[in-house]
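Q: Could you predict the 3D structure of 2OG-Fe(II) oxygenase superfamily protein?
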Amino acid sequence: MEAHSLSPDAHMSTIPRFDAAWQTWLDDNLRRGCTHQSMIDAMIASAFHPNAARSILARHLAGEAVGQHDDATADYVYGKPMLPPGRVLVASDCESSKLFSCDEPVVALLADVLSPRECDRLIEIGRERVQRSSVVDPDSGGEVLIDARKSEGAFVNGSTDPLVATIDRRIAELVQQPVENGEDLHILRYGAGGEYRPHFDYFPEEQAGSKHHMQRGGQRIATLILYLNQVEDGGDTTFPDIGLTIHPRRGAALYFEYVNALGQTDPRTLHAGMPVERGEKWIATKWMRRGRFRTQD
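A: Sure. Here are the predicted structure tokens for 2OG-Fe(II) oxygenase superfamily protein:
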């Protein structure tokens, strides 16, 4: 059953406050059997931040008191990372050491995920297929071209080349996520001047266009960027809000996650691909979903 009752402040202030009217609204909708997601969607439509909406509902369900202001812009709650602990991650055909890791936000650089030969083969596959990269339009959910992203890309899977299926399985084993929850591998080429300005990999739930993509497996929860070549100059991956810069290292992979058990999304995972100054940069990106990923119809 979906929520149909009008949000209490739908025609009032643009600055939401979780007051007694909102508590009554939640209780009424819970009694009616409305889904949690429908209530979160209604709160987002009434200008609550998605993280605040999820946190408020979770605390309300747990019987905790929520004040008028303490969750207005609820901060991301860090819990146990999804990435397995320890200094070495293990797959059936690979062992990868963590070159570094941090927990807030969850970021790790993994060594030797790909061999030099595998990197070369993915670049070969990419050269045959890449086209100008697009991004998700925030309103329609369609694909659009923007100046903030200057690269060429192609999605590939096991039907493209058996190596891709091998890498898909290896990634799933290393980070302990179901292989079926991974999107198709995205091979990307950045030529001289190519960049991707600061952005998030998760789908902002306050944007109408995100719903279209989340129907295909739910929210993105984590990203793995595979570095396929040594860039002559430039092309670093940066996290501007935490002052972190990663230099591309052939065969290594950068992992970061951005969704917690409450369904909140981590704004500190804002990241960018810096301009390539000399040469070219090749990467392959694997995005992981909350549920089984369904390819486009």
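Q: Anything worth pointing out?
A: DSSP finds six helices and 18 strands in the chain.
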